[in-house]
Amino acid sequence: xKVKQSMIGLHPYQPGKPMDxxxxxxxxDEVIKLASNENPYGASPEVAKAVNEAIAQVAVYPDGYAxxxxxxVAEQQNVKEEQLIFGNGSDEVILILCRAILSxxxxxxxxxxxxxxxKHNAVIEGTEVKEVPLxxxxxxxxxxxxxxxxxxxxxxxxxPNNPSGTYVNEQAFTAFMEKVPEDVLVVSDEAYxxxxxxxxxxxxxxxxxxxxxxxxxxxxxxxxxLASLRVGYGIGHEEFIQAVEPGREPFNTNSVAxxxxxxxxxxxxxxxxxxxxxxxxxxxxxxxxKENNFPYFPSEANFILMSVNRPGGEVFDKLLHAGFIxxxxxxxxxxxxxxxxxxxxxxxxxxxxxxxSWLK
Length: 360
Ligand SMILES: *Cc1c(COP(=O)(O)O)cnc(C)c1O
Known about the structure:
Layout: H1 19-26, E1 32-33, H2 45-55, H3 67-77, E2 84-87, H4 90-101, E3 107-112, H5 117-124, E4 128-133, H6 141-147, E5 152-158, H7 170-179, E6 185-189, E7 214-219, E8 232-236, H8 238-244, H9 255-266, H10 268-291, E9 303-306, H11 312-321, E10 324-325, E11 327-328, E12 338-341, H12 345-359
Parallel strand pairs: 1-10, 3-4, 3-5, 5-6, 6-7
Antiparallel strand pairs: 2-8, 7-8, 9-12, 11-12
Bound molecules: pyridoxal-5'-phosphate (PLP).
Pyridoxal-5'-phosphate binds near residues 91, 115, 189, 219 and 227.
C-alpha cells in the first residue's frame, strides 16, 4: 500500500513529552510539564459538573452542529450562528480549511517559525508553502504581502505567534487586510486571545464586516483549560463558512466537550483569575530574564521563549533531569532558546531557581 506523494517525508506531530513517561524513564517522583501551553490552574469547577452530566449520554451521538455551544459563542462574540464553524480543537478547523480550499499548484503564505499545523496540512494537500521569516520575532506582514501571487489561497497570521509569543498590532494588521486581494483568505489564529494584554492588539471580529476574506480561530484548549476535550472554532463571513462546512466530519465535536465549553464560557470569574495570574507570572519571568541578561521575546501569551545563552537542547535536557518538561527551541526554529509555558507561581519559582542554580 502506498500513501499519496505529498505524505512522503512527513512526520506525525511531536507533542511535549508526557509526564508519566518522563517519570518512568528518569526515575523521578515529581515532574512539572510546562511544554504545551496548557492552563496550569486546570478548568473551571463548573466544567467538572457539566462533564459529569454529559457522561450520562455517552451512548448517544453528539449534536454535530453543536447547537447550544453555537448559540453561546454567537452571543459571547456578537456574531451570527451561521458565522461559526466548530472543530475537534482549532487544529481541526485548520485541517478543514486546508481540505476545503487547497489543491496542488496553490500556495499558502506563513511566517517562520510559527505554529506547524498550517504547513503540515497544506503539504498534505500538495500545496506549496511560502515561509517568511519573522522580523525581530514578529510577523513581517509587508514581506508576507510581497509573497502573495495569483496562486495564493491562504495567509496564516498566528497572533500572538506560537512559539515567540509576539503579536501583530492593530495598525499593521488592518494595513495588511486593506491590501490583500479579496480572494485570498487571511486566517488570524488567536489561540491565546484571552491572555493578550497589549492595548493595540487588533480586534478582528468587527473587521469581519469589512473584510469577507478574514477568518478568526479561537480555542478552548488554552486559557479555558479544556485541551484534552478538543474543541475550538472559526469565525468568518457567513457565506464562506457555509461553503466550508461540508468539509467537516458529521460529529467532530463530542457532547462532553460541547457541554464543558458552555460551562467554561459561563465562568468568567475563573477565566479572568487565570488570565490575571498569568499576567503577574509573566512580569516575574520578564524581570528574571532582564536581571540575568537572558534574551527573551516579549510575550502576550501564556508561555515565554527565552534563552540562557546555551543551546536549547542542553537546557532542555538539564531541566528534564530536574523534573521540568519544556520545549527545546532547536525543534522550534530558535536553537538558543527554550519555550516555557507559565505554570503556577510555585512551579515558576522552582524552574527559575533550577536554571540559576545550574548556571552558577
Ligand atoms: C495550541 C494552538 C492551537 C491548537 O489548539 P487546539 O484548539 O487545541 O487544536 C492552534 N493554534 C495555535 C497557535 C496554538 O498554539
